[in-house]
Amino acid sequence: MSIRGLKKKQPKTFKVKIITVDAEMEFSCEMKWKGKDLFDLVCRALGLRETWFFGLQYTIKGMCTWLKMDKKVLDQEIPKDDPISFHFLAKFYPEKVEEELLQEITQHLFFLQVKKQILDEEIYCSPEATVLLASYAVQAKYGDYDPNFHEPGFLAHDELLPKRVLRQYQLTAEMWEEKITAWYAEHRGIARDEAEMNYLKIAQDLEMYGVNYFPIAQNKNHTDLLLGVDAKGIHIYSINNRFSPNKSFEWSAIRNISYSEKELTIKPLDKKAEVFKFFSSQLKVNKLILQLCIGNHDLFMRRRKVDSIEIQQMKAQAREEKARKKMENQRLAREKQLREEAERAKEELERRLFQLEDEARQANEALLRSQEAAELLAEKAQIAEEEAKLLAQNAAEAEQERQRLEITALKTKEEKRLMEQKMREAELIAVKLVKESDRRAKEAEHLKQDLHEAREAERKAKQKLFDITRLNYPHMVKYPQYLPTDTRDANFDKGSIKLDLKDIDLKRLSFEIERERLDYLEKSRKFEDRLKELKSEIHALKLEEKQSGLYS
């Protein structure tokens, strides 16, 4: 089916999705619109006036192609999606970003695209430069560094370094963040557009900045070279080296560029110089190379001509805008400085107020403590006064007690002397009693011995009487009842008298012994009682002496 047939079946409008580096937009386009109509609509939506750097890119059959401005959109070989997707990207790059990028939106779009190319490793950048570029990107996104707000870990979700750099150095995310933050802290006071411009000024010095590479061959058999097109000219690279070109053709030195099928020819301005011919993989590549060469050459020639009225107006507006922004930034910086000074003064005043409040609180506490101390001292003084009175009373009592003790001591000395005398007398009595006891014990022993001898004599007398009786009256001994009464009575009366006399002496002796023993026991008991009384009196005297010594 032809494209003309598709157009008839399609509605009067078709949807287009425009994808920028950081946003997406959808538009409804008329069927008859050309590429320039759609491009102008997108530029108006973005507020972009420097349109010559940009284009609408799409991918067809794995190849990136730019939408042609002079042909209808639907007449070009574009994806048949709904909506149709285009990428709004920078197609041509300036030689000097600071001089050529006038609008802030232009700077911002270039900044986003170049940053993406560096992170995707389409532009090689050294690790040191990537850290510096990342610090400017952070400044553009977050503003001035504030250690109270930008705490460790605030860059954890930001992609700031190429994966090649992360793999090359065995550093943790915290270490990379620390390195970036060290640079970021030095960019204080730089506005967002200024930070993005500083980023681009560093990036434009990189070897692969703004270069579009295409594989080429010097013959039809194989591809062994790379052709690069940028703002300065055409460069020929070896297949493994995209940094240093083997050969370069500046735009000012090129007379003509043409292609025939897959062959592309570059004719130098010097007719004596050798014409450079090479082959590409397909015809579309040659068309794209020629399109980029024409656009870059036109911009190259425009830079070297007098600016048009529109460009002059834009530059004047840009200068005014920069001056206004500079003044605004200076005003904001002054206001920020004044605000910071005011905040510091406020903090100082708050600190001073807090210090004064603390001092007042401490003074109140000290006053309360002094009042409490005064009350306590008054109580102590009252207690001390009462104690003084009590001590004076005690002193008077002590003096009276001392006088009493002196009198008592005198009495005690006399009593002590008397007691010592009594003790000596008691000791003498005790010695006498001991001697008397020994004497009486000896007498009792003698009496016991005499009693034993008397009983032994009695026993012997009885035995002797019995023996005599047995010899004189043998039959009477056997039958004492047949003895004559008189004889028996007479004989026994004699013995009885003797026995009675002996018994009476023994009883008397026993009675005297018992009486003396009882007397001795009574005297011993009385003596022990007297000794106990003396001991008690002596003990009491000793206690009184101790107490009188303590009172003294």
3D architecture notes:
With 552 residues, the chain is α+β, with helices and mostly antiparallel strands. Among the domains are: 13-90, Roll (Ubiquitin-like (UB roll)), CATH 3.10.20; 104-204, Acyl-CoA Binding Protein (Up-down Bundle); 217-305, PH-domain like; 354-471. The protein contains twelve helices and twelve strands. The protein has helices spanning 3-9, 35-46, 97-100, 104-119, 127-142, 163-168, 173-184, 192-203, 283-303, 309-472, 474-478, 485-551, and strands at residues 13-19, 24-30, 54-60, 63-66, 84-90, 212-216, 225-229, 233-238, 247-250, 254-260, 263-268, 276-279. The strands form three sheets. A five-stranded mixed beta sheet has the order 2-1-5-3-4, sandwiched between helices. Strand 7 (225-229) and strand 8 form a beta hairpin. Helix 4 packs across helix 8 and helix 5 packs antiparallel against helix 8. Residues 475-501 have low confidence and may be disordered. Residues 14-304 form the FERM domain. It is a peripheral membrane protein. Residues 311-464, 517-544 form a coiled coil. GO terms for molecular function: actin binding. Pfam families: ERM_C (PF00769), ERM_helical (PF20492), FERM_C (PF09380), FERM_M (PF00373), FERM_N (PF09379).
Brief summary of the model shown:
This protein is an alpha+beta fold and 552 residues long.
